[in-house]
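Workshop exercise sheet. Pairs work together: one partner reads the sequence aloud, the other fills in the structure field after running the prediction. Swap roles for the next sheet.
Pair: D.N. / O.F.
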Amino acid sequence: MSHDEDLPQTPEQLAAFMERLTFDAPPAPADEATLLDALPPAGSAVMVVRSLRLPVELDEAVAAAAAATEVPKTTWIRQAIEMALAVQAEDDQPISRAEALRALTLLRPARHGTA
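Structure field:
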């Protein structure tokens, strides 16, 4: 983390700091095209990066759950958050046990371990 004493404090220090700055050359046209092709398509959902701290045991459990469902950990965490938000949604409509059982019978079994 930066400390105030690391920052220029006077106009002279600022001028010296600015003179030491260097800039990379802009990418060549071919490289620029490659960089632009790597961008998500226009209209794609914007993803926000979040940093969070997890106890080691919880991180290991998330890793195991993600591996079991063959998705990256970030995808598993995002899906878990989406499910939690859906459960808490104000417009949530409870369903009957019979409807839930019917829906569950349509799901394919989860893969647990090797058979």
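Discussion prompt: Residues 7 and 84 are 44 Å apart (CA to CA). What would you look at next?
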